[in-house]
């Protein structure tokens, strides 16, 4: 709601349609309020009831411009669109080639697909408010921007092709009336010349007339739809009556049929009137040639393609959704009524034509209805009004779909000119662009060829509509409660399969091309579209939820096996501004496993119950920015340690729970801000606020006290161990630069140190922690960035070094880990007795030893020993942390690793 609209004081209303609002003494304020909400009312009147109430629903309808009901807004447009060029121009073509039985069969197939699709349309349109954009709106708001945008684009093209089809039919009717040997001009005279380019000139002129009307009088045309429909119905009734009143006679071959006229200039076609013989002869198929398409052979597919283009207007009512008073009421009734009326009309004309017209008449004269009519101009008027109005309607509809695509920013700046080119609510730029595309389609010239392309594109739209409704039904979304109940998953499936099958029956090449184009658009929109239509709601999310829930229940933690183990990481993030390199590294380390970013806000939980809702959006934006595949878990606790307990217990779901907890190292380094550093690949302004208080993820100041003490940090390590989770502690990842690792040739190794330096043993290389280290190093070696690096396992020089080497080599071979074994001869210079007598000197020497081996190391994995006392004193904890600090000082990016369970398998 507009923030500038003043609040209504002293006025009460609930907001339901038709509800009365007591005006009190604020009648003018109420009217001004709704006028500003819904726009200026066209009437400008202040209608009130006798008792001083104003009708809420009426004000909304008048002000929003929604004035059309089921008949004028849906039934009439649907009938006119479905009749278009088929009713008066191609019924004879269909019956004459396919025969009556096959014609009825084809109509049955077409209307079965249509009825099932209409059920889907009705279900969607009665499930919520349908706004402007019609079918595109319904598809996109359910299937999401990628699939909805691609189908919307092809639906836009379908309207373009349909407009060209109707213009071609209109010109065909004009030529047969006013061309050489035309029915409305004297014999051997004509008004219109006839050739391919003359017809192109005529269609282009009519297309230009459509453009002028769209630019200056589209609204007026919408108001005359009922009048045009009445004219077409009168012409249709005259045709039906003529079959009963007209006596048998012979009809000339039309001048447009040059193929017959060139070989037999005296050929005459027979209208027999009602005849059992004629009816019997017209029952079976007898495919001939199409004289309007260079005399090409007619087939079942080409006949169905032409027939189906006469039933593709079912979305005309849905396209008027922005002008309908009550779309959810009008669309089902008007569309189903229009489908029934057109079906009866087509079947009636087909049966009457088969019973009265010879096969030659039906095949060689597509405008046979004109000479047998009691007054031929009726058919002329019917052809011109039906085809021209349908072409104009399709041009208007296509421009509105293009406008909707532009407003949704589906193609970003590519369609920005459409939004700029709007004058008095008329999308002038969209109209001009649509007109230009229609002009290009007119080069095809043949109505029957255009009809096949038209049918394919509309069938694709029907596929999308049925898929939309099927998806909504299968996901069992609680909010999918359409008031139209005459549909099911079966009707959607049958409509979907029928549409796909008939697409390939009509023209396999067009069908394959349309699906390929749709897939290409989906991929392009997925990767490049700037549209952020999260408020639309995508059915893909509902389908994913439905399937994920089902498979999570099937994922039984009791059936876990070590050979299918994978790391499932919970990374504790104090502040993402300073943690971007670590987040990126752990994302590589997860090996398609679960990755959770955990954060603890230290505060009173009872005063921050809504913290997650407030902060989650920023964290999800962070995930998108850093380009990692991670979930977010946030909690509020009195301490970081308590928050860690929350996250370990609650992160994940079912069998998908973290088995490894990763933390940063506890030291006194000043945290770096990777969002503002000029040399950072993570540089962004997305998390900056206008003021300091509005900035996302503010960093701790250098002199600001930490929320975590050294002793508490060590206690957290012990807690993780006691909760039976693997532990990784990352240090020096401020030095980690993935791009530099790729480009800098000095980085050659990934190092593994499988030895507990706080208590070395001959069996260290084979215990759980070392095997876990080897597993992690092997995983990181699989990443493309590190494939050129050598995995190096360091072996300390001991008394039995050869035996140790053979055992370690055998272990690596058994685990299928490709690595080199590097003997560290300097280890013999370190006196282990100093470990107890002078621990600091010992740790310092070990650190120097590791550092000497790491000059060309990209990542270093080091054994993490546990404190001797799991619940030690603060002094013991600090001493342990100091030892870890001294051990890892001045090393490259280092991961301290401790494993608590087996993670490697040698079984098949």
Automatic annotation (TrEMBL):
One of its GO terms (biological process) is potassium ion homeostasis. It is found in: Membrane. One of its GO terms (molecular function) is potassium:chloride symporter activity. Its main location: membrane. The chain crosses the membrane at residues 74-96, 108-130, 150-175, 196-220, 226-245, 296-316, 336-357, 422-444, 456-475, 487-506, 513-529. InterPro entries: AA-permease/SLC12A_dom, SLC12_C, SLC12A_fam. It comes from the Eukaryota. The keyword Transport applies. The keyword Oxidoreductase does not apply. Residues 79-570 form the Amino acid permease/ SLC12A domain. Keywords: Membrane, Transmembrane, Transmembrane helix, Transport. It is a multi-pass membrane protein. Residues 590-668 form the SLC12A transporter C-terminal domain. GO terms for cellular component: membrane. Belongs to the SLC12A transporter family. PANTHER family: GH08340P, SOLUTE CARRIER FAMILY 12, CATION COTRANSPORTERS. This is Solute carrier family 12 member 9. It comes from Aphis craccivora (Cowpea aphid).
